[in-house]
Amino acid sequence: MQTQSDEQEIRELVTSWMKETRKGNFDAVMGLMADDVVFLTPGQAPMIGKSAFAAAVKSQVDKEPPQFDGKSEIREIKVVGDWAFMWTKLTVMVTPSAGAAATPMTRAGHTLSILRKEKGKWLLARDANLLAPVK
Fold it and tell me: Considering just the CA atoms, what is the radius of gyration of the chain in Å?
């Protein structure tokens, strides 16, 4: 049974994820995901586990990390026991560090996420995103 507090906790997880990503605090972001998290993105192999996430972040962050911003609009949350799913409309803007040659990029689309409650805390367990470049 879905309770208001479960839904609110999940909404707070999304808010925290976006806030900590903007700040570049990826250790805090990693604290919001399960150890066995799986990320699915178009055209890429699945990214499995926190260690893969950490490696992906590290590969993007050189001396000066890029700046991230974005907006997540939750469209639906359903909770079934210690599992929940949600879909969102997500927009992510990445501005490379000052010394990088790349240009800023915006990607947008929908995500489908599965969350699991572990030790009383909601964590991201699976995430599939359909983000595409915005022209």
Answer: 15
Please report where in the chains the tokens 């609009």 appear, as a residue: 73
Question: Could you tell me how far CA 55 lies from the centroid of its own chain?
Answer: 15
In the chain, which stretches have pLDDT less than 50? none
CA distance 73 to 39: 19
pTM of the model: 0.89
At the topology level of CATH, where does 4-133 sit?
Nuclear Transport Factor 2; Chain: A, (3.10.450)
HEC profile of 52-89: HHHHHHHHHCCCCCCEEEEEEEEEEEEEECCEEEEEEE
User: Residues 5-37, buried b or exposed e (16+ Cβ, 10 A)?
Assistant: ebbebbeebbeebbebbeebebeebbebbbeeb
pLDDT digits (tens, 9 = 90+) for 11-24: 999 999 999 999 98
Q: What is the pLDDT of residue 2?
A: 55
